[in-house]
UniProtKB/TrEMBL annotation:
It comes from the Bacteria. It comes from Paenibacillus yanchengensis. HAMAP family: RecO. The keyword Zinc does not apply. Belongs to the RecO family. Residues 1-76 form the DNA replication/recombination mediator RecO N-terminal domain. The keyword DNA damage applies. Involved in DNA repair and RecF pathway recombination. This is DNA repair protein RecO. SUPFAM superfamilies: ArfGap/RecO-like zinc finger (SSF57863), Nucleic acid-binding proteins (SSF50249). The lineage of its organism: Bacteria, Bacillati, Bacillota, Bacilli, Bacillales. Keywords: DNA damage, DNA recombination, DNA repair. InterPro entries: ARFGAP/RecO, DNA_rep/recomb_RecO_N, NA-bd_OB-fold, RecO, RecO_C. The gene is recO.
Length: 254
């Protein structure tokens, strides 16, 4: 059967002496594997289409399992995401996270595709890398059904008021939300969050990367938000990512 889909390359691997197999997140058919013959050759017609982070139109034949590319066109190459180390490392983390979380399924793939497409575009356009990555992480938590509860206490359902945040509320990754002052004792691993972090977390849950403007956040606040998102990701998505280890190594060199 011949498929014609818009997709983004989230993984690319060598196959034999001259071919490549790419994992493509499509807008309509979930995650698919496609063989691109001759992609490693210097004069390959479709070599550029096999590059990580490339958004393109893929025409491929598939009966079961792996598809074989018949024709393709690049829509957005995202070349900067492969050429600049910081961008490349973060794009690789986003791609690997997507690959590990999204199974070979169609349900929900349209939403993830649109968020990933907007995420790569934002990185390409010099939007704040930390903010873009954290917003995408929140979108993946939402997709997986683990968006944190931030309007009511996750334990007693008391309404959470921003004015009560300092030294009163804690983020519990284990329970998946905020604990009010009366309930903070139930999770000894819960972390105190600042008023600004609380507001940002709420903003993150409402944000769509396709409508991302410029958000100005201090370095210290981005670090606090990184701690919050890491705890939520590690607790609920339970994925070990090689790309994140590399990101951590880069951070130590800064």
């Amino acid at each position: 059967m011949l498929y014609r889909v818009e997709g983004i390359v989230i993984r690319s691997m060598d196959y034999g002496e001259s071919h490549k197999i790419v994992t493509v997140l499509t807008k309509t058919h979930g995650k698919v594997g496609v063989l691109i013959r001759g992609a490693k050759k210097i004069r390959s017609k479709y070599g550029a289409l096999a590059q990580p982070f490339t958004c393109g139109e893929f025409h491929f034949f598939r009966t079961t399992g792996l598809g074989t590319l018949n024709h393709g066109e690049i829509l957005m190459s995202h070349h900067r995401l492969r050429e600049e180390l910081d961008l490349s490392a973060n794009a690789a983390y986003i791609a690997e996270l997507t690959d590990r979380i999204l199974q070979d399924q169609e349900e929900g793939s349209g939403y993830v595709f649109e968020q990933l497409k907007a995420c790569f575009a934002a990185l390409q356009e010099d939007k704040d890398i930390d903010i873009v990555v954290q917003l995408y992480e929140m979108s993946m938590l939402r997709f997986a059904g683990y968006e944190p509860q931030l309007t009511k206490c996750i334990h007693c359902s008391a309404e959470l008021l921003v004015d009560d945040v300092p030294k009163s509320f804690k983020l519990s990754a284990t329970y998946g939300g905020i604990l009010c002052q009366r309930c903070v004792h139930i999770d000894r691993y819960a972390i105190i969050i600042s008023e600004t972090a609380f507001k940002l977390l709420r903003l993150y849950t409402r944000m769509d990367l396709r409508r991302l403007g410029n958000i100005q956040v201090s370095d210290s606040m981005k670090q606090e938000m990184k701690t919050c998102m890491r705890k939520l990701i590690d607790t609920h998505l339970s994925v070990s990512l090689k790309s994140r280890l590399f990101l951590d190594q880069l951070d130590k060199l800064k």
